[in-house]
Amino acid sequence: MDLTNRAERAVPLAKAERAERAERAERPERDVLAVRAVRTDEWAEARAFRLDALRDPVAPIAFLETYEDAVGRRDSFWRERTERSARSTSVRQFVAGLADGGWAGSVVALVERRGTVGAFGGPSAYDQVHIVAVYVRPEHRGAGVLKELFDAATAWAWSLEDPRVERVRLYVDERNGRARAAYRKLGFEPTGETVPVDNDPSAREFELAVARPAA
Fold it and tell me: Maximum CA pair distance of the chain?
């Protein structure tokens, strides 16, 4: 395992986090109106938000997709994906809407049936929901937006009847310490399961999960 390269990668990330905190302190925060499911006609907003997320300094260790891949996708791709995220019973996107019509943050919740191939490969051992595409804009971090998004996603997961979801899980890159701490604060605990990072086999993604609350 190349610890030198990993340390070198951590330096620009640390600088980006310091710059982000300084920039956030200088900017007024806009009010978040509500956390809600995405609407079918919001494909352009979904596209713009995703591209912004993929330009974030931490994007290389937070997302499996690159900006270059996403920016070349046709409008029909974004329309179809947004409509599915609004209407399907197997996937739901939640957004934190702003007064100006923009989004402060977003998460996507995917249903994974027991025995079917999950988002990271291999058959799922549970009927579960997998949270992906987590992003909160820098100026809204630390203000409770992430918790509200996760509350909405997990409430939707527990409301499903077919399947009756046993747990909600996510994966986080071992180099993304800030995200790991935030998820644990929300009740997601390491399960001991790890998978290699696609573009860096020397790094690992940790699985974190929260079990269905007792009745």
Answer: 49
